[in-house]
Amino acid sequence: MSTMSTNKELELTPDSQTKTITTPRFERAAEFAFDDPNQYEFSEAAFLLAFWSILVVTEGVVRFVQHGRPGAPGLFYRSNPTRFWAELVGALLELIFGAFGLLVGLSGGVLDYYSHTLTCILFLMQVVLGAYVFIAYVVVIPAYRIATEDAQLSLTPGASKTLGVLGILASASFCLALQGGQFVFITRLIAYSGPDDFLGHRATAACKRRAVLWNLVYAAAGLWTLAAGAILTHFEGAGLTARPFFAPPIVGRSPLFLLITGAVMVVWPLVGIAITLFDLLDVVRDYVCASFVVFLFVHVSFTVGQLGLIADNPAPPGNAAAGAALHSHLVFMLCFLPPYFMFKHLRARNLEIYP
Predict the structure, then answer these.
(1) Cα angle at 99 between 196 and 141, to 5 degrees?
(2) CA 318 to CA 323: how far, in whole Å?
(3) Alpha-carbon dihedral of residues 336, 340, 343, 344, nearest 10 degrees?
(4) Which of 58, 122, 222, 324 suits a disulfide with 266, CB 3.0-4.6 Å?
């Protein structure tokens, strides 16, 4: 166990006698945070890990509660025990590594206490437990639903299954941001807690690569959404569908809105990739600010814009409010990471130019 601190000499007597005292890190953070890049990055990683972990815990809670919603497997449901245990265990594991991440983040950011051992344990937990949650909720359970459900709306069986697969691919992109974001801030916390640059987080080129990577994940989510919107528009037209379409997170009643949202989600990160690859540093801040507007549009689409239209409809997903809660923070996570790393790349380049 270790803590971060610094020594400072204070003059105590007129004849210049001095005494060395230990100043806790949080007492010097306000004065030196921006002058000491490592100190600033450590504190930022700790707070963002805590914030991200709250969102992970929230998703685990919603999934646990949804497990017992009307029309779905409940806590005492036994006609399909495999699905029952897969969902229940996944929700509990998400709660566990989310809560542990919250503990580590708040300890480092608020209590001025950092344990390398605990953080490495969290790192291993996040990788192992997160893999189960990802496979269960993103791949296995949706694949089982696609294989057993009838064709949706007026879609052909083939088109309906294609829609389901696009939902799995979109879900994978969103959940990569969910679990990948927590992974990012755990590893950044480790990297800035000591002399070793864990996974190369301090390198300018690494920030650039991560900015491109998360923009590609963002664009991929948009591509699957765009394709789903195109299929639904082809079969159902541009107006509202009679019943909801359901291929989470592609859920709602407006194919045209889905199509437009997908197009925006493809174009905007591609612009971010171009800015990053060509080092157009002068426009990064403007892009980051404009990204907030794009986030609001995508957020509205995946929450009130689509799920708000089926709130009183008994068809799946049944509890639209719970779906809106899940989609709300998934959209935030997906939209946050690309501009975040673009800004990190800008800051790293500025530190190279103006050390």
Answers:
(1) 105
(2) 9
(3) 180
(4) 222
